[in-house]
Amino acid sequence: MGFGRENFFWHKLHSLTGVIPIGFYMIQHLTLNSFSLAGPSKFNGVIGFFESVPKHLLLVLEIGLLGLPILFHGIYGLFITSRADLDVAKGAYPWRESRMFWLQRWTGVGLFLLLILHVATTTVNAKINGPQVIEWQAWHDKLTSFGYVILIVYMIGIVAAAYHLCYGLWNFCIRWGITVSGHSQRAMQKFSAFAFVAVTLLGWIALFGFLKEPSTGSDDGEAVQVRRELAVPISSP
Ligand code: HEM
Ligand code: HEM
C-alpha cells in the first residue's frame, strides 16, 4: 500500500498546484503588497483595482483559479503528511535532507492554519464589512497593536511560506525530471536557497511598509506649529 500507482495522478496534481497557481500567486501577492511602502494611497489603489473588477468575475477567479487549487493542495498535503514515509523512516535520505523534507511538510501544516486565519480576516472580512478593513490604515493598526504579536506571527508565516515554496521548487524540479544530473540538482539547490532569502525579504518589506506613521508634509508642519504655540504660555514667566 502507500503511494502506489493509484495515487500517482493526484500526487502529480498536488505538486503542480504548489507551483501553478499557488506559488505564482504568492509571488505576485507579496509584490503587490509591497506597495505598502509607497504609502496609503498607492496601496489602497491596488486594493481598489480588485474592488473595481466585476464582483461575479472576481468570485469565479478567486474560487476557480485560487481557492479550489489551494484547498486541494492543502487537504491533500495534510493527507500526505499524516502518512509515515517509510523511505525517510528507514533512513533512505541523509539526515540533513530528511530534516529539510520534514520541515517542508510541517510548514505546510502551519500554513494551512495560518491561511484559514489570513483569508478569514482579509477577503472574507472585506466582503462582509467593506474594503476599508484591508486598506493601509487597517494593516498599520493591526500590525502595530497587541505588542506587535500579529506582526511577529506574519513574519514567521512569511518565512514558513518562503521555505515551503522554495524547498518545494527544488523537489518539484527533481519530481518532474527538470533537474536530472547531480550538477543541475546542486545548482537548483543554490537557486532555491537564494529564492528563499529573496521571497522572505519581499514579504518582510511588504510588512514593514505598514509600520511607519502616514504623514504628509503639511500635516507635519501643522503639528510643529501647534506644539510651538502650546510651548509659549508654559515657558513664559
Ligand atoms: C505581507 C504579508 C501579506 C499581506 C499584507 C497580505 C494581504 C492580503 C490582502 C489585503 C488580501 C485581501 C485580498 C487582496 O487584496 O489581495 C489577502 C488575501 C489573500 N492572501 Fe494575503 N497577504 C500577505 C501574505 C500572504 C501569503 C504569504 C500568502 C500565501 C500564499 C497569502 C495568501 C492569500 C490568499 C490565498 C488570499 C485570498 C485571495 C483572494 O481573495 O482572492 N497572503 N492578503
Ligand atoms: C495550505 C497549506 C499547505 C499544505 C498542507 C501543503 C502541503 C504540502 C506537502 C505535504 C508537500 C510535499 C509533497 C511531497 O513531498 O510529496 C507540498 C509541496 C509543495 N507545496 Fe505545499 N502545502 C500548503 C501550502 C502551500 C503554499 C501556500 C504553497 C505556495 C506558496 C505551496 C507550494 C508547494 C510546492 C511548490 C510544493 C512542491 C511540490 C513537489 O514536491 O513537487 N504549498 N505541500
Briefly, what is this?
The chain is an all-alpha fold and 237 residues long.
Give a quick set of tags describing it:
disordered C terminus, single chain, 0% strand, mainly alpha, 237 residues, 3 helical TM bundles of succinate and fumarate reductases, 9 helices
**Cα radius of gyration in angstroms:** 23 Å
The number of distinct structural domains comes to 1
* Biggest β-sheet description: none
Q: What would the average pLDDT be, to the nearest integer?
A: 87
**Topology order in helix (H) and strand (E) letters:** HHHHHHHHH
3D structure, described in words:
There is one protein chain. The chain has 237 residues and is mostly helical. It has a single domain (5-235), classed as Up-down Bundle (3 helical TM bundles of succinate and fumarate reductases). Helix content is 79%, strand content 0%. The chain has 9 helices and no strands. It has helices at residues 8-33, 40-52, 55-82, 86-89, 95-129, 136-144, 149-175, 182-208, 217-235. Helix 7 (149-175) runs antiparallel to helix 8 (182-208). The termini are far apart. Residues 217-237 have low confidence and may be disordered. Residues 15, 18-19, 22-23, 26, 70, 73-74, 77-78, 80-81, 104-105, 108-109, 111-112, 115, 161, 164-165, 168-169, 171-172, 175 line the site of one protoporphyrin IX containing FE.
